[in-house]
Amino acid sequence: MKQLKSTLIIFLSLLLLSGCGTPAAPEVPEAPEAVTAFTDALGYSVSLSSWDRVVSLYGSFAEVWTLAGGKLVGTTSDALEERGLDVGPDAVVVGSVKEPNLEEILAADPDFVILAADIAAQVDLHDALTQAGIPHAYYRTDTFAEYLSMLGQFCSLTGRDDLYEQNGLSVQRQIDRVLDAVQDQPRPSALLIRAYTTGAKAKGDDNLAGVILRDLGGDNLVSRHESLLEDISLEEVIAADPDFILVATMGNQDAAMAYMSKTFESNPAWAGLSAVQNGRYVLLPQELFHYKPNARWGESYAYLAKILYPELAADLA
Predict the structure, then answer these.
(1) Architecture field, domain 168-312
(2) Percent helix, percent strand, percent coil in the chain, to nearest 5
(3) Could you tell me whether strands 199-202 and 189-196 are parallel, antiparallel, or unpaired per DSSP bridges?
(4) pLDDT at residue 80 above 50?
(5) Alpha-carbon torsion (240, 243, 248, 254), positive or negative
């Protein structure tokens, strides 16, 4: 009931704001301060009464807050170093994604803290933030639907329906056009690898690149060879001989690809794979397939669709 009341208050406020050019409405008593209640990604109940001083502990989520028209008083270093996000002169750095600094978070005097549900150091902050009386919520955005939900919630707080359209619904239409274009195409097989400085893992659809591959109709090799999730057996890959080998890197890209070269590419059998011989051994850009693409989800879908279905490239431009 409290959430419904809050929604009605926000809705009525937006109607009043959009009334430019219409006869003035009768004066009404000032609405009470809105309170938004919801359940976050970890199942915690969250109640917000203010969101003027927001701290985000993940660069991606900091970007989503700004895409919704919000301002930040604090964020983690990745927002600046990896995303180049302009957070304004008044925002402070409160540690890194995996090592957030509680003292600096509290010093920023936030009324809302945005955290990542998949990062242990951030999950561990729940009790301390609760004891400090600071409202906070955990999110995850491994799919476009999760991003769209987060953006929609943030835009409802900032009152920016225009930015929900611009950075959310228009992206949804772009993705829909790509999916419509590929829906009747044959399913290409693919081995999706996440490579990093000291190793490489085959991935399913538990990450954004895998989700996009699945949505585009790709036949991910691990769906038929689950053992690849534990160890990339070159013999098993050779036997399956996928149409594509797709590599998404994390961390230092050059170092990750050096590991791929040393571990796999140096083996003569690797050169015999159809994907390698046909130029279908592809490095995916980090900004679209490792970092959360946010308002660029549509670009991510179109980019991979053009790789999997090159004959449709003109239609996907």
Answers:
(1) 3-Layer(aba) Sandwich (3.40)
(2) 45, 15, 35
(3) antiparallel
(4) yes
(5) positive
